[in-house]
Every structure is written in structure tokens, then in C-alpha cells.
Design brief:
With 73 residues, this protein is an all-alpha fold. The protein has three helices and no strands. The longest helix has 18 residues. The radius of gyration is 24 Å and the shape is elongated. The mean pLDDT is 82.
Length: 73
């Protein structure tokens, strides 16, 4: 917190925009880390797990209507 106050003071003296408040981008950083781990897992050839795998299983299930072409008339 003290570093943020020092940086804010310095930015005000120099006429630069103030730095973001600590913790502003924490959720975005965590989400990015999770996405990167998933991407690395795909590159390594590991299968999807957890909720992602369940969603894919539901989407590509043989009885799912999106997997069958419409009836020809």
C-alpha cells in the first residue's frame, strides 16, 4: 500500500496517470493463468478434465440433437 501511495504521488507530480489500485486486476491475472495452464495441457496432449470435460461430453454425446443432421424431405 505504501508503494502505491509513493507511485501515486510521483505520478501526480509528473502529470502522469495514477497507477491502478492494488488488487484491481487480480481476478483477470488468475483467469489468464488458468487459461494458460489449460492451453499448455492441450499442447502436451492431456485430455480435458472436470467441468470442461463434462461440458464437452454433453455437447458431443451421440443423442445430442446438434450431432444429427436434419431429416431430408
Amino acid at each position: 500500500m505504501q508503494q502505491h501511495m509513493i507511485d501515486s504521488y510521483r505520478a501526480a507530480r509528473l502529470g502522469a496517470p495514477a497507477p491502478p489500485v492494488p488488487g484491481t486486476h487480480d481476478v483477470a491475472v488468475l483467469r489468464g493463468m488458468r487459461d494458460h495452464r489449460r492451453f499448455e495441457a492441450v499442447l502436451a496432449g492431456r485430455l480435458a478434465t472436470g467441468r470442461l470435460r463434462a461440458a464437452l461430453a454433453r455437447l458431443f454425446a451421440p443423442h445430442h440433437p446438434r450431432n444429427h443432421p436434419p431429416a431430408c424431405r
